[in-house]
Amino acid sequence: MSKTNIILGIESSCDDTAAAVIREGKLLANIVANQHIHKAYGGVVPELASRAHQQNIIPVVDQAIKLAGIRKEEISAIAFTRGPGLMGSLLVGTSFSKAFAMGLNIPLIEVNHMQGHVLAHFIDTPEDAPKHPSFPFLCLTVSGGHTQIVVVKDFFDMQVIGETIDDAAGEAFDKAAKIMGLPYPGGPLIDKHARNGNPKAFKFTKPQIPELNFSFSGLKTGFMNFINNGSAKDPGFVEKHRDDICASIQFTIISILMDKLKKASQQTGIRQIAIAGGVSANSGLRETLMQLQKELDWEVFIPKFEYCTDNAAMIAITGYYKFLKQDFASQETIPLARYELR
Fold this sequence. Notes:
globular, 2 domains
C-alpha cells in the first residue's frame, strides 16, 4: 500500500463513464466519457448504455491515471458506485472495480451515488480549496432520477427528510422539453431558452403535497395539456412562445423546490444550504438560491458545474473518507439499482 492515500473512483450509474484520482483528499484527475448515442432515442437506452460503458471504462481509467501522474501500483483503494442506477451500467463499473482491486490486491470501497453527490461539496484540488459547508447542513439533491432534501450531520450520517413521491425534478425538465419538441437532454435547453423569456408569462399549477415531499407527475400532465391546447389553436404556438414557456415552466419547478427547502430550513433551524445533482447546474436554480441567501440569511453552497452532473470525483472523495475509516467492501458486493441513502 502506498505511503500517501490515493483513491481511484469509478462512476457508471447511468450513461456517463467516469474515473477520477484523489490523493490525500486532493483531486488530481477527473475524466468523463459522455454517451451521445442516446440523443437519437430521446432518452437513455439501458442496453446501449451498458455496452458503451464496456467500451469506455478501460480508456477512461487509463487516461485518469496518466493525467494524475501516478502508477496504478500506487493506488491505495478503488471506490465505485454501487447504486442507485441502471443495473447494466452499474454491473460494468462494479465488475471492473472488483477485478482491478483484486489484480492490485487493494481494498474495494462501495459508494452510494446520492451520498457522492452530497459529498461533492468537499472536493478540493491542489490549486483550489473552496469553502465547504460545516455540519449540519441541508442539501437539496436534484437530478434526473432523484429529488431529496437531506440533513447532512456528518460525512456518513445523512437523513432524508423530504423526497419525491413520483417523478424527479430533472425528469420533469426533460419531459417538458420533449413535449415541446426539444432534443434530449432537454433540461439544459430549457435553461438556455428561459434566459430570454418571461417567467411570469404562463402560470402552471403547483402540486399541494404535505410536509417536505415533492411531486412532479401532475405538473408534467398539466404542461402536456397546456402545450396540446395551445398547439390545437395555433400550430406555431410553441415556436412563437418557446422562450416564455421555458422560463415559466422552469420558474414553476424551481418555486416548488424552493418552497420545500425554505420549509425544511424553518423546521430544522439549519441555515447552511447546499445543492447537488445534475439539476444544480441550472442557472435559474443557482440564481434563485443566491437571492434567497440574501433574503433569508442563508449560507449557500453551490458546486462547480463539473461536479454537478455524474462524475467520478464525487465517488473518489467519498471513497477517500471511507478509506480513512477503513470501511471496505468485499468481492461479493453486488450492484443495487435501488439503494437508499442513509
